[in-house]
Fold these 2 entries.
Entry 1:
Amino acid sequence: MKPAKIVFLLLTLLSVLLTSCKAGQEPTGTVPAGKPSPQIGPLEAWDTLTTCFQTKEGGGTVYPPDYAGAWIDGEILHIAIATEAERSEDCPDYEALLAGFDCVVFEEEKYPLNDLLSVQNRVFQRLHETFKVYTIGPDEKENLLRLGVDKSEDKEQIYNCIDEILMEDDLLTGVLKGTTARDLFVIEDSEPVRYD
């Protein structure tokens, strides 16, 4: 979940609590003392998880080598682990790190998020020269990349172009070896992003 969404959720919760409080009364509809709010548990678990992420010089995040993504669904924080990724000392013991949270579920996935982001960056650099590419980004829940293109674009041609890029740029190493554009991408119709 993006930091802006987390801040929005926390501010919304705080404003609801403050507006429902009257002098000397407990706010109505709140969780009794000692019981966490349903969303607070996953958000706190997310904050704990992010302590094992590193920040690149100049911005950006470097994830542990086996980290495939995370998402909140209701009261559950799902953490995806790339089980085929090479383990190293840079891979945290997620279960130990998050042992205090009963709202965490671990999912097994194939592709590490760092690998998907490397492919994303290289493919986007090359595709936008030829095609009307409007959006590209990881879908952590589905463990792939989503590519939004103009509806007039030939998607089959784009898949073929991505396959060429993957081969030429030698991006198919480690767990990506033997994958194709169709394994890594979903290409969808999209509209240009407007910043009005």
Entry 2:
Amino acid sequence: MPEKQQIMSVSLPVSCETYNCFKKVQWAIGRPDGPRELWNYYCDDCMRDVVSNIPAELLPGSDNTSTDADTFTCEYCGKAFKSNQAVVTHQRFCKAKEDG
């Protein structure tokens, strides 16, 4: 049976595949039994950004349904959002953050 997609630690002398990032890769996403040309390579910082922004509906144990309990709140102004990515994006430009 073929293996599933995985995040793997790698050590290659190449740059991260994220736009305008020139750091050395430390992580790859791909199938271990698949061709390495099809893997996606990321530095440690970019991989941490990817992992921290995984939508809630993709996390293990999620039933892929949205309820009122699935809200994310801005820590600066208290505004509620339906996804973690939305609140993170909002917090970058939140006016309450600039005031405090």
